[in-house]
Amino acid sequence: MSRPARPSAPTRDELTDAAADAAIEQACRILRLPTIRAHHARVAEAAARQKAGYKGFLVELLAIECDEREDRRKTRLIREAGFPRPKRVDDFDFTANPLIDPGLIHTLAKGAWIRAGQPLCLIGDSGTGKSHLLIGLGIAAAEAGFRVRYVTAAALVNELVEAADDKHLSRTIARYGRVDLLCLDELGYLELDRRGAELLFQVFTEREERASVAVASNSAFSEWAHTFTDPRLCAAIVDRITFEANIIETGTQSYRLRSSQRKHAKNSLTRDRKTSAGGPP
Fold first, then answer.
1. H/E/C letters for each residue in 182-235?
2. Could you report the per-residue pLDDT of 85-112, keeping only the tens digit for each?
3. CB 176 within 8 A of CB 206
4. I need a labelling partner for 70 at 20 to 30 A (CA). Which of 31, 52, 231, 274 fits?
5. CB–CB of 84/150 below 8 Å?
């Protein structure tokens, strides 16, 4: 007696909507396509309404996945850079500091100098926009796909000293050598002893003419001898930082100080008007 024939498994054309959704979910998890998994139903409905072909439907799905993946990559690169706060070039008030050329900054934001391995020096007093531009250009670089690391000079020197004491200095220097752009802030605020200066010099040497360093300093190059007390070492560091560098001087007029003074003057004027009108001060 022959056995009854087993029912054949449904083909892809015979899948119910629920079974098709489950298969898509499983495939997207295996292939790590979270955006397609989240949006395939909506895109399929839109494609059906518009009577789009299979290729048009696939192109739309893949474009959404690629765009979302690029956004996640930008977010990851910015997070890994370690910026202390979000500052963007587009948010910089160029009218507050006419010494800074907006065209030059926006050209630097495109990143050609990073591809060429050129340095960038932002020199000026506190409150003149150095850190804002340093972070803004660093974020622009990260969004363009460059690996970026932000650190203050003091924090980097402390990390290098600890690495040297723990016998893994070469690994730490190599790690800083691998990023496309090193943003070094607050150089010149503190005097460095000879050991700290020598360690910092090793980082500059690791990156020389190969990967970019962007430095923000409140001291003119002629005053760096106060930070790097060894004259020969100071000269060598200045030489490496300035060779084929983009140098931007942000001046001496503090934007924060002028803003505070304007606010204080406005508050005083308001109080004077209230007093003259007979109201409470």
1. EEEEEECCCCECHHHHHHHHHHHHHHCCCCEEEEEECCCHHHHHHCECCHHHHH
2. 999 999 999 998 989 999 999 999 999 9
3. yes
4. 52
5. yes
